[in-house]
Amino acid sequence: MDETTFKRLIENKTRKPDPMRYKNAAVKYRRAGNSGLKLPELALGLWHNFGSFDNFEIMRDMVFTAFDSGITMFDIANNYGPRGGTAEENFGRILRESFAGYRDEMIITTKAGFPMWRGPYGTGGNRKYLTASLDASLQRLGLDYVDIFYHHRPDPETPIEETCYMLHQLVERGKTLYVGISNYNREQTEAAVKVFRELKTPFILNQVCYNMLDRTIEENGLKALAEEAGFGIVVYSPLAQGLLTERYTHGIPEDSRMRKSWTLKEERLTPAFFEKLSKLRDIAAARGQTLPELALSWTLKDKAVSSVIIGASSSEQILENIKINPDFTAEELTAIDGICNS
Ligand SMILES: NC(=O)c1ccc[n+]([C@@H]2O[C@H](COP(=O)([O-])OP(=O)(O)OC[C@H]3O[C@@H](n4cnc5c(N)ncnc54)[C@H](OP(=O)(O)O)[C@@H]3O)[C@@H](O)[C@H]2O)c1
């Protein structure tokens, strides 16, 4: 760590957000589907680098950098860590120590759906798990309510009516303002939308993976459904966990996700992959962008996308990623499709 960064981390302990934050913000806002809620085009996700083994002062620094840049949405889940729950605890501490008085400028989201505690009531989409999990998340975050609570993945063992009605009740109980779903395909989303409409639930988002290398939501019709049904898509892993950056251009760094986590496998780094990257880099350069700027701009090209959640391991990465230009020519889009499908 260089001296300037070290000094900044020390100063962060007593500083407050930049008073000029909206005037200087690089990030713009979009409506979440047809709702009245505006979301920043980029959000910060806490899946990695906010757990018990990570440096707390770097986490705090990233939250400051994000917020000062206009990234006002922070995406968390009950199980983010490792250990599960520690991302919420760490973010809760950052809120308490550095952002007291700024809650109303932030969109704070959490989720439940993956295994969180032992036994049959620590996972899924049933009433018992969802209600207990959100209570535990609020406690770790130190909050009375979150802005968006997502069901993290479909649960084939729970009727969709049960999951949706529980989410609806969590809104009625004042524990969340809006609800979302995540990793639901087109058919599963249609089934949920039907129930939410009957209940008049403020359902606004489906959070899914989308990037130049992963076109699932184009292929399964979910992106088209979002526009038809009026909810927003929130994109996760827009940089394919770091593959669509220069992170692996000169080998696998010891501090990278590929070394530190099981979620990104070394097998992805094939000669064919690097060839694609090189061609995408040429398109980025012709647009005056870096590779991650191209990748993020591309995910924001569709109206259906309300926000894109980036991950980061340093403030420098966040600052490298915020120059977005979502306008593409038809030729550029065709060229990108050709490269990615080759
Ligand atoms: N709903 C779900 O099921 C689900 C699933 C996955 C993710 N998510 C959410 O989406 C968020 C984002 O996902 P993600 O972390 O996979 O997103 P991502 O933006 O595709 O990947 C982030 C990683 O890319 C690398 N990176 C970012 N900017 C870089 C730059 N300028 N240069 C070099 N490397 C760069 C960093 O890797 P290093 O750590 O190696 O530096 C960073 O941790 C998560 O935090 C989570 O909130 C949700």
Structure, explained:
By secondary structure, the protein is α/β, with parallel strands linked by helices. The chain has a domain at about 25-245 and about 300-315: NADP-dependent oxidoreductase domain (TIM Barrel), CATH 3.20.20. Helix content is about 40%, strand content about 15%. It contains 14 helices and ten strands. Strands 3-4-5-6-7-8-9-10 form an eight-stranded parallel beta barrel, surrounded by five helices. α3 (about 55-70) crosses α4 (about 85-100) and α7 (about 185-200) runs parallel beside α9 (about 220-230). The longest helix has 16 residues, at about 270-285. About 45% of the residues are buried. The model has no long low-confidence stretch (mean pLDDT about 95). Bound molecules: NADP nicotinamide-adenine-dinucleotide phosphate. NADP nicotinamide-adenine-dinucleotide phosphate (NAP) binds near residues 48, 183, 240, 245 and 312.
